Amino acid sequence: GAGVSQSPSNKVTEKGKDVELRCDPISGHTALYWYRQSLGQGLEFLIYFQGNSAPDKSGLPSDRFSAERTGGSVSTLTIQRTQQEDSAVYLCASSLAGQGTPYEQYFGPGTRLTVT
Amino acid sequence: AQSVTQLGSHVSVSEGALVLLRCNYSSSVPPYLFWYVQYPNQGLQLLLKYTSAATLVKGINGFEAEFKKSETSFHLTKPSAHMSDAAEYFCAVSGPLGGGSYIPTFGRGTSLIVHP
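The joint structure predicted for all components is written out below.
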């Protein structure tokens, strides 16, 4: 497919379990972003990758959250010891570049995480 | 620092009526401004963007927005609403951050409701 894909589309997990969310960006897009969308809260920035490095991790809400990107392509967002407040839609976006000019972001459909 | 305020979490219009969604921004540098639309269970899609060229920006689906520096506003309009316009709309501001990155800050969103 030509767009950004995310998996799984829905994830229900028990409190305290770890979860991994995956993002496949558009081929050739060097910049990748993770956001969290909670009801009525808009989009909360989590982390940004330029290539495989993450120059800005300022949005990660706690040390239970981590992310990596390999091969300049696929990214995984990991949440350890999930809490109920982690329940949200996690959106991934990619763009041609994050440096020097605001290229359009292309968003995936999101992963809806529910922590019970 | 940059921020976005979207006035009104919900806007309700009749089909065929004018659509006006309000966005005010705050930025310490000349901003880049965006409007995105999110349909149910989908990711965000770019409607239009302002990048310091023409102050009146035309986007997809008949939407347009006008950048007014004196009012720090970037309101979204459409002359005649269609039922298919019902969605969540997000305003975003972006400017050069540390390292030259452009990570947009999103507003909380405005839900557009269109009545037949």
